[in-house]
Design brief:
Blueprint: E1 4-8, H1 12-24, E2 28-32, H2 36-39, E3 51-55, E4 57-58, E5 61-62, H3 63-72, E6 81-85, H4 90-96, E7 101-104, H5 109-119
Parallel strand pairs: 1-2, 1-3, 3-6, 6-7
Antiparallel strand pairs: 4-5
Length: 121
């Protein structure tokens, strides 16, 4: 069964790169440049993603706040969240809000894929 991943980042180039990488690896991917999409997770069929890749700093939103909110909800707390950021101190702050993993930007494709695969086993 194909795993569904939601990628939320406000940089269109990063969204494209991650989408291409994950589709090439066999995942079904939905992308968004808006933090609201991470809070309204259901796809057009009402399904939830199997994993979320979420930028720490989104335009107008803080990904850590979104992560904390998702991890507090019974229907979404079990969805693994891999947070990404170019900010050097972000790794510690994302763990504090319940993120399951962190990948630094610019990311190595093998590191990102390994994080995704680790949480989708």
């Amino acid at each position: 069964m194909t795993k569904h991943i939601l990628v939320v980042d406000d940089d269109p180039d990063i969204l494209d790169a991650i989408e291409w990488l994950l589709v090439d690896a066999g995942y079904e991917v939905r992308t968004s440049d808006k933090g609201d999409s991470a809070e309204n997770l259901r796809d057009t069929n009402g399904g939830l993603p199997d994993l979320i890749i979420l930028d720490v700093l989104l335009s107008g939103k803080d990904g850590r706040t979104i992560c904390r909110h998702l991890k507090s909800r019974p229907d979404t707390r079990g969805i693994p969240i891999v947070m990404i950021s170019a900010h050097p101190g972000a790794a510690g702050s994302v763990r504090a809000v319940g993120a399951d993993d962190f990948v630094a930007k610019p990311f190595d494709v093998d590191v990102l894929l390994a994080a995704v695969e680790r949480h989708l086993r």
